[in-house]
Amino acid sequence: MSTENQATTYRTRSNRKKFLMGSGLSALAGCFMMSAAAAQKPAEPVKEFHIAAQSLDAALKSYAFTTNKQVMFTTDIVEGKQATPVEGEMTDAEALQKLLAGSGLVFETRNTNVVLVRTAEQQAVIDRGAGATAVDEVEQDRPLDSKGDVTEKEKTSDEITVTGTLIKGIAPESSPTLSFDRDDIIGSGVTTTEAFLRQLPQNFGGGSTEFTPAGLPNDTNSRSNNTYATGANLRGLGSGATLTLLNGNRLAPSSTIGDFVDLSAIPVSALERIEMLTDGASSIYGGDAVAGVINFVLRDDFQGAETSVRYGTVTEGHLDEYRISQLLGKGWKTGNVMAAYEYLDRDNLRLSDKPDIPTPTLSNGDPIEELDQLDLMPAQKRHSGVFSARQEIGSKLEIDAMTLVSSRHAESLTVGGVASSDITQREISSDSLSANLGADYQIGNTWTASVDANFSQVKAYELAQGIAPLNDPTWTRTNSSMWSVDVLTSGSVFELPAGDIKAAVGGQFRRETLRNRLSSGSGGHATRDVTAVFGELYLPVVGQTNAIPGIARLEVNASGRFDDYSDFGNTVNPKVGVLWSPVDGFSLRGSYSTSFAPPALGRSYASRAGAVFPYSFIRGLLNIDLPDPSLENVDYLIAQGVAADLDPETSRAFTAGMDYSLDHGGHSLTTKATYYDIKFDGRLGTTPIPQNLTFNHAPGIAFDNPDAFPPGTIVFFPSDEEVQSLISTFTTPLQFRSGATDLENIGFINNALIIRNLASTITRGVEVQLDYEFDTGRRRYFAGINANYIIDFIQQASVTSAPVERINSLYNPIDLQLRGHLGVAQGGFGANLFINHKASYRTDDSDASVSIDPWTTADLSLSYRVANKQAGWLDNTAFNLTILNILDQSPPETPTYLQYRLTGYDPANASPLGRFVAFDIRKSF
């Protein structure tokens, strides 16, 4: 990079850092100023409620999500009771009072965000003991029988376990978390779970996705995606570094190496919420939770029926999309059952539909005209079904079951390979099944024991048929499965003045299996057994009852896990988090953790291959200068595959952050800011190339600087023995390409594409989330921003090679991404405008690099819900109109990369979809 370019880049990033730091300090100062202004108790704001007639249990949970309050009650006091419907604008207290009308239940609000629901008889007993001590009050808050004695069910027996903890009734507030409820998901206007995650700044759009049929040049794992599946990719650390859960349980992975979970198998219509933990979580969940955890929580207590129909289309091109879903639910005194079905049908999007996206070119620069039918997005059809049930047996035992089935078919036209105009038709079939059976048993007053059995399987079939020219079809079959049994016991250990010390202890046995078969006769089979024990401790040091000036709340959360892998030995991973709240509404938090990730199962038998090219052909294709006259007319041998004797990946993560919330006179402000620092040691990948150039530039760099790469990466003028020794490790025949015919003229060997354990990957960054709401009594206004700024993303191939900064280059994470929103709601009407922005960057860090423009798009979502019994069949009907990318902004133009079937845009940081308009109707019965 030239000195001028370096200075420009530094000034740009320095200005962004100053802007973000200034914004953060200003927000923090504003928080304290508004805190002082809120000294007087404000009037409770008015909200809009839409809670249908249903079981009281389900209605109270709906109320909790609407008000963002923690509602505590026991299942025995709501059994068999129906809620009074709540529709319209009112305060939280008015809504809950109306909800409980005629039920014989009363409520008490504590700490503004905690609501206790009891029977009138229980409240009378508590009122008679109004002079009790704090310890006595804790006893009184437990469920009472008709005689006023403590029952065997604790008051928090209906509390849920949230992502990031093993203990019911607490949240991991010392760790950075994000939660998106059903309204957030529907209001975003997307149709699939992967599309929703792609909008979030914390999730990198690169890695294994449907936009990259042959993967990305900087992500070797993405090249194993043979099903057009999409995986989560928090922090840009790879799809295999984010653990994806369904109702807290693991899912079988996709791809030929089994490294990520296919998000498209999870239907949007069955989702209740999405919970994200964005720091290390191996102390709770075991391997793969390096960058974080995403937990998809299904709707499990729905009463009635809901039908949804959606149609969407692009305004430029021929892509149409249809989605139909049906939800049914029934509750009774001691249980409930729910079933959901969703059908999705989407056309393909072709390059000819998007003339602003450049077509791949041949080595002489001429476009390949026949590639206008190349698919930017494959055609997809999917059937998904969910069934869940819960049943109490007696007063202490509860069992639950869940099953998710999904069948997906995809078709796409792709291009052959380097400088090729061969057209290939690919057809994908993917079937997945996940099932869980669990039981919870109440032990005494405060402890619960649970057992969960979980099974998950993905079967995939890929058929590739060359159609121009016509050739014989090839196929790949993949079968990935996983089953596990978990045992966990949790509860209160003893009481402190600030509250109960709570603990959880458990164990797990898990078996993972992966099988691959190819039409060529090759393939592989691998099995891994994992045995684990784990525990967690929650310690409230200071709380409401013993608060002192400067310490309104102080909590410590510690957890640890021991895993024994049948193929990679054992590991211990701890985590500790601290939450300190100087005053109510403002808290500081921090966490430290370590994580462990064994290589994906498919890496244990992955193939190694090689090809010979004339060096002059590659130089002409990529405009690479000749490093030395001795290399002018030579061929070169390039190897790819997996190195022998891989080691596990390990990491440590540190986070520090602040949370602030304020409610005053109808104004509500929530602020979250987090600094994260993750060091990922031994991460599997290919050798990073300085200046973010391609692996084909490695020989020239190595010739000028032999220390730029680990020894053996580039071998100049190898002997016949060295060539034959390398070829003997290949599991597929050596290929001769683009005019090369033999091994007589090998000038060098390029091993930069061999997958191995890198020395380290380090990423540091800041994420900020601001949400503001103003309630006038008749109308509510919303505004907010979710931003992520990456300070560093550094890879180092070995301790002796130079670090390579990966951000702000083609197919890699961009330093600044944000998503802002503005909204208004009145009556049944709602409108939301979203602004998405990604900063500018360059193709690489060389003097010849090309600038890539920033990309800013706007999305609009309009909704109207009819809640009027006089409206006849329109009652409880919601209408939604969504326009994504309103101004039809084309993705920024980039160089094409024919070897990976990549056209002239960056699929990791942009979308080819363009303006997309969708309309859907949801009817509740």
Please provide a written account of the structure:
The protein has about 900 residues and is mostly beta strands. It folds into three domains: about 100 residues, Phage tail protein beta-alpha-beta fold, CATH 3.55.50.30; about 625 residues, Maltoporin, Chain A; about 110 residues, no CATH class. The chain contains twelve helices and 43 strands. The strands form seven sheets. It has a 22-stranded antiparallel β-barrel. Strands 26, 27, 30, 31, 32 and 33 form a six-stranded mixed beta sheet that branches. Strands 6-9-10-7-8 form a five-stranded mixed beta sheet. Strand 39 and strand 40 form a beta hairpin. The longest helix has about 35 residues. The N and C termini lie far apart (about 65 Å). The N terminus is likely disordered.
- Tell me the name of the CATH homologous superfamily of the largest domain: TonB-dependent receptor, beta-barrel domain
Enumerate the spans where pLDDT stays under 50 for 5 or more consecutive residues.
1-42, 128-158
The level of helicity is 10-25%
Amino- and carboxy-terminal Cα gap: 64 Å
Over all CA atoms, what is the radius of gyration?
29 Å
Mean pLDDT: 84
Number of strands: 43
* Strand coverage percent: over 45%
